Amino acid sequence: MFDAYIFYILVFFLTAIQSIVGVGVLVLGTPILLIFKINFIDILTFLLPTSIVTSLINYIYFNSKNMINFKIDKYTLKIFFLGTIPSVFIGLILLKNFEIYINFKYLVSGVLLISILLVNQKNIFYKVNRSIKFIFLIIIGIIHGLSNSGGSLLSIFFTTLNKKNESRYYITFFYF
Questions:
Q1: pLDDT digits (tens, 9 = 90+) for 69-92
Q2: N or C, which terminus of the chain has less Cβ within 10 Å?
């Protein structure tokens, strides 16, 4: 059994990590809670709003401290909103229809393993054209809708495209 105190301490630390890095509540919280045999829908019900609020606070903080001296380019906004957002809904529809057939421990573990392998490929997205980047964002959206683990892939996508502060802002903005 998972103690409520441990749960809240875990969420506190995951929120702190997300405040610093841009991701954490969903990316790390989902697999940890799955290990403790908490139902996937229950995990989403609590962690998703927590992640949204954390990202919103980070976004407000970035903008209030005038830490941003650049703008998100229009192409990135366009491919994100046209590719990722609809894809998340596709993933959610797949989740709703095939939930009983999906082993979330394997799915989330697989996504995290792929993410770990991609982290070492720092320049992977510099070498591909815009169409491939768009397709990658569609895949991230579907994975995120299905597994709640697309944040790690999204982080890798943005850290390979931008400088450190820009990456943190992009991750915070788009994760929100």
A1: 667 778 888 888 898 889 989 988
A2: N
Q: Please count the helices (runs of H) and the strands (runs of E) in the chain.
A: 9, 0
Residue at token pair 């994100």: 80
Give the C-alpha separation, 141 to 151, whole Å. 9
Length of the chain: 176
Cα–Cα separations (whole angstroms), residue 40 to 9, 43, 107, 154? 19, 5, 12, 21
Structure tokens belonging to residue 132: 């491939």
| E strands present in the chain | none
**With contact defined as beta carbons under 8 Å apart, do 172 and 55 qualify?**
yes
- CB neighbours of 128 closer than 8 A, spacing ≥ 6? 136
**pTM, full prediction:** 0.75
- For 2-28, the pLDDT digits (tens) are 688 888 899 899 999 888 877 788 888
What span, in angstroms and rounded, lies between the C-alpha atoms of 168 and 102? 32
